[in-house]
Amino acid sequence: MATSLYDLSVPTFLQTVRAVAGFLDRAARHCAETGVDADDFVNARLFDDMAPFHFQIEATWHHSVWGVEALKTGVFAPPALVGPVPFADLQAMIGKAEVALEAFTPDEVDPCAGKDLDLQIGPRRLAFTSETFILSFSLPNFHFHAVTAYDILRSRGVPLGKRDYEGRLRTRSA
Q: Which residues are within 8 A (CB) of 104 and not within 5 positions of it... i.e. 6 or more apart?
């Protein structure tokens, strides 16, 4: 059986969004146990010239939910960035992303296969198909920001491992 556009996108985003929710929960528990303020993570960066933690979480949300929404509309139009918010709000943002992704169905995503999807980034116009948009733009950006959020937490002492990032693998049933 061929892999559908839905299969390429929604379950893949959900696997990592759920993992992000898990490592955010782990960070909150770590803070409660150690007396660290979770809000100290909000503006944390790996390097001075990289975007802060809150941006990484917002971009993870945008590239997943709004990446799939772009398949339906032909336009990648995430909402404006909200900027620094309390850590608990970032957790809620990822929770909303999970709910939104769970609401997408194969019947609404799969018919978008092969559609043109143009993206305007400043003066640059990038011409994609739905598949190339998901595979070469949304998924790479999504994973970059999710792993950067993971790395920021890890660099700040949150006890995370590779399995925390992988989330629940989608193995075949026996």
A: 6, 10, 68
The whole model's pTM is what? 0.93
Q: How far apart are CA 32 and CA 145, in angstroms?
A: 25
- Go through 160-172 and write b for each residue having 16 or more CB atoms within 10 A of its CB, e for each that does not: beeebbebeeeee
Provide CB contacts within 8 A for 151, sequence distance 6+.
46
- Cβ atoms of 34 and 134 closer than 8 Å: no
Torsion of CA 59, 41, 38, 25, to 10 degrees: 40
What pLDDT, on a 0 to 100 scale, did the predictor assign at position 174? 58
Count Cβ neighbours within 10 Å for each residue of 101-140 and write b for 16 or more, e otherwise. beebeeeebeebeebebebeeeeeeeebbbbebbbebbbe
